[in-house]
Write a structure and sequence with these properties.
The chain is of the alpha+beta class. Helices cover about 20% and strands about 30% of the residues. Strands 1, 2, 3, 4, 5 and 6 form a six-stranded antiparallel β-sheet that branches. The protein is globular.
């Protein structure tokens, strides 16, 4: 897999759901790009910052290699965790949900 950017795309404008600001992003699950890069890109876009301003996932208690091993582009799965002050839900279909409390 490559460390290049995935060009993660927003699939919705931010909306309020149960008092939280939620935005959905998608990446191509059939590409050879890393899902971890897609997560960082999505969070950066949701926060309105450059992805280089965010801490590496491994510094926040998320094992990037373990997350990559979950992803095979075919098996349905989802994984949720906190990162950079946001609640993240990643799904095997290429959906990344970024939620922040207001």
């Amino acid at each position: 897999m490559s460390h290049e950017t995935t060009n993660t795309k927003p699939t919705s404008k931010p909306v309020l759901q149960d008092g939280a600001r939620v935005q959905y992003f998608s990446y191509d699950p059939t590409s050879d790009m890393w899902v971890t890069v897609a997560v960082v890109e999505a969070v950066a876009a949701a926060k309105g910052v450059d992805m280089n301003e965010l801490p590496p996932l491994y510094e926040t208690g998320i094992d990037p290699d373990a997350l990559e091993e979950l992803f095979d582009g075919e098996t349905p799965w989802s994984f949720s965790f906190s990162y950079a002050g946001r609640s993240i839900l990643v799904e095997g279909d290429g959906t990344v949900r970024v939620e922040s409390s207001n």
